[in-house]
Amino acid sequence: MIRQVARQRYLIDFTLASMMRRKVKNVVLFGVYFLIVFVLASVMLFGSAIRREAALLLANAPEVTVQKLVMGRHDMISGEHLEALSAIRGVRRAEGRLWGYLFDRGNGANYTMMVPPASDTTHAVGPGEAIVGSGIDRVKTIGRNEYLFLIAPSGRFFKFTVKERLPEGSGLVAADLVLISEADYRALFDLPDGVYTDLALSIRNEKEVATILGKAAKAVPNSRFVTRSSIARTYESIFTWREGVLLALLGAAILSFAILAFDKASGLSAEERREIGILKAVGWETSDVLTSKFWEGALISLGAFLIGLIAAYAHVFFFQAGLLEPVLKGWAVLYPDFRLTPHIDPLQVTTLAFFTIVPYTAATIIPIWRAAITDPDTVMR
Amino acid sequence: MIELQDVTKVYNEGRQNAFAAIRGVGITVGNDLTAVFKGPSGSGKTTLLTLIGCLARPTSGRVTLNGETISGLPEKFLTEIRRKTFGFVFQRFNLIRGLSARENVMLPAYPLGLDHAALTRRADELLDHLGLGSKGGLSVEHLSGGEAQRVAIARALVNDPEYVIADEPTANLDTKLTAQFLDIVRTLRAEGKTVIMTSHDPRIWQADIVDRVITLEDGLLTADERGAHAA
Amino acid sequence: MSALRRSDVAVGALAAAASLALVAMLHAFVASRTPPASQAVNAALVRDLGLTDLVLFTDARYTRHPSVADLHSAFQDHPMSLDHFPSGSLIAPPRHIFGTGPRFASDEEIPE
Ligand SMILES: Nc1ncnc2c1ncn2[C@@H]1O[C@H](COP(=O)(O)OP(=O)(O)OP(=O)(O)O)[C@@H](O)[C@H]1O
Ligand SMILES: [Mg+2]
Questions:
Q1: Which chains does C contact via 3+ CB–CB distances below 8 A?
Q2: pTM listed for this prediction
Q3: Which of C4, C6, C22, C56 is the best substitution to test chain A (most A C-beta atoms within 10 A)?
Q4: Alpha carbon of C92 to those of A237, A247, B180, C78, C83: distances in Å?
Q5: Is residue B140 part of a domain?
Q6: Number of structural domains, chain B?
Q7: Which atom of ligand 1 is closest in space to residue A381's alpha carbon?
Q8: How many beta-carbon pairs under 8 angstroms link A with C?
Q9: Residue A281: which of B55, B114, B116 has the nearest Cβ?
């Protein structure tokens, strides 16, 4: 056992010494490997942290949202249905919701305008008042007087007094929110009374949702229902799409990398072949040669994996994934500023480890193996 | 004691360019003798050394070591025997670049997993013995030809083998270094090691430490004479 | 010779990296057990205001509110039209548009 450890140490000594000879190549290799792992791990960690956060937060979303559809498009829904809906057994409350988007021509940002539900007393707003999300401040000067000026789609000016700002840490759910009163909302968007963006149902027992939906579908024709569980599912799949794309891309990168390594190694230089011959001639077994090569692959890929993972962790959870921001922002002017709760999915990390370490190490060993099993008599010449 | 029984070696066997380098050789070497193989270029001297030293397997015939057949053994055992029994000094020295002289000497013992301090000490002793005490830490690219050969000799001795096999050991050396090499062989001989060499160089096969001179021609033994020492 | 061997340095560095990675996992574990105060605040906001989505991309309806967006909002102008927004390519269409029933979320059965 102690012998084995000592043997491995000797083999690592040798591997490092021969790696030092190709210092530049190995440093570049390590760097490329590190970058691949870093990007991949950053995306994975970010994605899984977002999904977890979404699952936790959106567990509080409305159980059922009822939308009216006209020719496949979302349309305003009449409040007349509220009575029929709240009469369905199992429905605790049915409420009309008013929310929509306002594009700010001045700075190109999109705000989500919303009327807080009547049941929410903590965010009650009077006429001419507004509560703004944490991101609004960053894209719009609210000024010393705490006034928020908005131009309605009709071209009319609106002036709101900012009554309150939503807390700093709430960017992930409320960065672009502007809460205003119902009267102001209808005036801003020229909406008639009695119509709503959609209707939210709160339900007594989650198990009854299917039954209630059946009844509601009869009560409100031409409508679509979004349940809380379908919201959850939407967010379970968020980023997996992109992660898939990235994985495919980086998978291809790793593969070409492995091919490169393989190609390089299978066309082992005469010097390397000779070196293997010398080692065998002086008494190394094939397995000794392979083990020392294994260490070469492992030191690079395992080292790059570990350091890449650590760097990605720090990047995502301590530096707010700053390098991913340009990708995530897209065309958005208003981008939420949020801190994710650290979260590591062990399965994901294992997968990443497997796919980064194994192919490369194998690609370094296999070609050597071919050279290492031949008789070493050529070194005599 | 190594015995070759009716050994042949055919390169590229079964192909168009097949070439029989050794064509039926029977010989016994060992027993503290210093033996030299001589013969014209291409006569098969190097090939015979690879067969004796278990670096290659014969195409037919058998090789025995102290009475045990070793020519048919699997690779793993052959390597182990090679490591324990033989030390090689190659014509081109074959030191590994990037490693220090000391590390090159230690190399054959790496797979044994010996205590690092003890192994380092042993390598330093060997180098010291060969007059390279101060060069242990130097990378082998910086050594002169004679120094490189002495490092190669130290490497051949690190596992304390019974046989030292040297192919054209003085081909790259001048007269003075050749004399120095013969001195080293003298010491080895005194320590009880069997030294087996090939050489084109009369200074080698006429040297007073040589017990036996074997002539090879066209893959066949043509003479087996006593050397200057035995005479 | 007690000089540091190359293998010691390399294995040491690897061990250090491995323990740092372990620390990161531990950190993540502890952090997920003790969520920051903002999580409770956010959960309360979602509940009080009845929010349905996270603010990840504000550039289009179907990226700002993917879970309640129109069935075909991404293809509104033409069924084959390409997405205008980079983030649209980063987000999968909401699950329910793949569903069988036109009006229901994917696996809610249409009752009699
Ligand atoms: N791998 C090989 N394939 C084909 N022929 C080979 C191979 N190796 C050696 N030979 C041939 O075998 C013959 C014997 O070679 P060997 O190296 O044993 O000769 P040698 O007596 O050592 O010659 P020299 O004195 O020039 O070193 C040569 O004719 C050589 O061309
Ligand atoms: Mg020769």
A1: A, B
A2: 0.82
A3: C56
A4: 7, 15, 79, 18, 12
A5: yes
A6: 1
A7: 17
A8: 269
A9: B55
Tokens of A278: 């010398």
Shared domain check, A254 and A191? no
Ligand 1 atom nearest B198 alpha carbon: 22
Class of residue C99 by CB neighbours under 10 A (exposed 0-12, middle 13-18, buried 19+): middle
Chain A: touching chains (3 or more CB pairs < 8 Å): B, C
**Number of separate domains in chain A:** 2
A144/C34 Cα distance (integer angstroms): 38
What 3-state class would DSSP assign to A73? strand
Residue of minimum CA distance from atom 26 in ligand 1: B41
Cβ of B16 closer than 6 Å to ligand 1, yes or no, is no
pLDDT in tens, A266-321: 567 778 888 888 999 898 988 999 999 899 888 988 999 999 999 999 999 999 88
Which residue range(s) make up the domain with B135? 2-226
Domain around A275: 2-57+234-380
Classify residue B231: in a domain, yes or no. no
Residue with token string 């009077």: A126
A110 contacts C108? CB cut-off 8 A: no
Partners of A113 on chain C (C-beta within 8 Å) are none
Task: Report the complex ipTM.
Answer: 0.92
CATH number of the domain residue B153 falls in: 3.40.50.300
- CB B199 less than 6 A from any atom of ligand 1: no
Which of A15, A20, A224, A239 to probe by mutation at the C interface, max C CB count within 10 Å? A224
Which residues, in sequence order, are bridge partners of residue A160? A148
* A177 and A257, same domain (yes or no): no
Nearest CA to ligand 1 atom 5: B11
Cα–Cα dist C22/A313, whole Å: 11
- One domain for residues A67 and A204: yes
Chain A contact probe: residue of B10, B37, B50 with most A CBs at under 10 A: B50
**Are A70 and A160 within one domain?**
yes
B25, B47, B51, best to mutate for ligand 1 pocket (most atoms within 8 Å of CB): B47
Are residue A144 and residue A240 in the same domain, yes or no? no
Partner residue facing A242 (CB), from C7, C25, C90:
C90
Please provide residue A71's backbone torsions phi and psi, each rounded to the nearest 5 degrees. 50, 40
CA-nearest of B120, C73, B163 to A283 is B163
Q: Can you give the pLDDT of all 231 residues of chain B as single tens digits? A: 999 999 999 998 888 999 999 999 999 998 878 999 999 999 999 999 999 999 999 999 999 999 999 988 888 888 889 999 999 999 888 999 889 999 999 999 999 999 999 999 999 999 998 999 899 999 999 999 889 999 999 999 999 999 999 999 988 888 998 999 999 999 999 999 999 999 989 999 888 999 999 999 999 999 998 888 776
List phi, psi (to 5°) of A173.
Answer: -110, -20
Residue A282 and residue A360 in one domain: yes
* A275: chain B residues, CB-CB within 8 Å: 96
Atom of ligand 1 nearest to the CA of A380: 17
Final residue belonging to a domain, choices A175, A202, A227: A227
Is the domain of A48 the same as that of A74? no
Residue from the list A223, A238, A303 with its beta carbon closest to the beta carbon of C103:
A223
Ligand of minimum distance to the alpha carbon of B25: 1
Contact C71, A69 (CB under 8 A): yes
Same domain, A77 and A216: yes
User: Could you read off the pLDDT of B154-180 as tens digits, one per residue?
Assistant: 999 999 999 999 999 988 888 998 999
Q: How many CB atoms lie within 10 A of CB A175?
A: 27
Query: CB-based contacts of A65: which residues, under 8 Å, 6+ apart?
Result: A97, A198, A199, A200, A201, A225, A226, A227, C52, C68
